[in-house]
Write a structure and sequence with these properties.
Bound molecules: FE2/S2 (inorganic) cluster, fe (ii) ion
Number of helices: 5
Radius of gyration: 22 Å
CATH topology of the largest domain: Naphthalene 1,2-dioxygenase Alpha Subunit, Chain A, domain 1
Distance between the termini: 11 Å
Shape: elongated
Structural class: alpha+beta
Strand content: 25-35%
Oligomer: single chain
Largest sheet: 7 strands, antiparallel
Length: about 300
């Protein structure tokens, strides 16, 4: 798992009146909001005797531990020890927090101390959606696979004709395929089938390593995907859907919701995930055992970046 990157850990709407406990980035985290609305994040263990702070409450503008009531402000400073209200608070009782930002309706945590990189997002992609009057539908859930198997799948156009042959039949041949790298970005384009062939469709994917992808299928459906590691073998998979294939006034939300459910719950959960689970690599990040095809070039580039970032 790569350090010093921003990862989407949950949606902004999940942070409300109570602390939230999440396992992400191979750590148990607690997230909460200060009274002025700032999102905060720390390791979910009280510096006193280790109780999970996510079981506590928000009280007097602070995160309060459920065990002995120590209170912490948003930067992690311990500001109250109820058993010794008049004593100086030792520095060891301060909570170490992680950098947090909110953007695009998501809460992002930086798994390092000094964020020098931006939150990964393709603003042009979202602008295009808004210009089309697109309606967004967000879906997220846990999958018991490495995030790397998901990222690998996002530029893999030639699996669709096989894994999804009953649900989303498309031509197996990928034409006009290209993949290029620019920094942490991988841009992939391809066409399923030949012009005039049934199911012929252009697809493009923009990956921002390590965990973001934005996909466009023929300009008719667009997805943004964040594949955030929960740990080495589990992923929190967030997907934002928009579509312009079916436009009936007043029904855009419903139709986009149907598209999201079709892709997320049927194609990914029922059809892709069993294949992802079956891909066993001793090291999920080492694809040295693969024999890649030209149509896998986006995958090769993604893992090239991943390896560089790991060093
Ligand atoms: S363990 Fe948190 S206050 Fe004691
Ligand atoms: Fe798939």
């Amino acid at each position: 798992m790569l350090t010093d990157h921003w990862y989407a850990v949950t949606t902004s709407s999940e942070l409300g009146a109570k602390p939230v406990g999440l396992r992400r980035l191979a750590r148990d985290l607690v997230l909460w909001r200060t009274p002025d609305g700032q999102a905060c994040c720390a390791v979910d263990a009280c510096p006193h005797r280790g109780a999970a702070l996510s079981r506590g409450r928000l009280h007097k503008g602070c995160l309060e531990c459920p065990y002995h009531g120590l209170r912490f402000e948003g930067q992690g400073a311990c500001v109250a020890v109820p058993a010794h209200p008049d004593a100086a608070i030792p520095p060891a009782l301060h909570l170490s927090t992680l950098p947090v930002r909110e953007a695009h309706g998501l809460v992002w945590v930086f798994n390092g101390q000094d964020p020098k990189v931006d939150i990964p997002w393709d603003a042009a992609f979202e602008t295009a959606l808004k210009a089309e009057g697109g309606v967004f539908v967000d879906l997220s859930d846990h999958f018991d696979v490495s995030y790397l198997r998901v990222m690998e799948n996002l530029t893999d156009y030639h699996h669709v004709a096989h894994v999804h042959r009953r649900t989303a039949p498309v031509p197996a041949q990928v034409t006009a395929f290209s993949a290029r790298r620019d920094g942490l970005n991988v841009y992939v384009q391809g066409t399923l089938g030949k012009p005039g062939e049934r199911g012929h469709m252009k697809a493009s994917t923009h990956i921002v390593a390590p965990c973001l992808a934005q996909l466009d299928f023929g300009g008719l459906a667009r997805f943004a995907v964040c594949a955030t590691p929960i740990d080495a073998d589990n992923v929190w998979l967030f997907a934002r859907y928009s579509q312009t294939a079916l436009r009936f006034p007043g029904l855009e939300g419903l139709l986009t919701r149907l598209l999201g459910a079709f892709d997320y719950r049927l194609l990914q959960r029922r059809e892709d995930a069993p294949i992802w689970r079956s891909q066993r690599l001793p090291d999920p990040a080492d694809i040295g055992r693969y024999t890649l095809l030209p149509a896998d070039e986006g995958i090769r580039l993604y893992f090239e970046i991943h390896q560089e970032l790991s060093q």
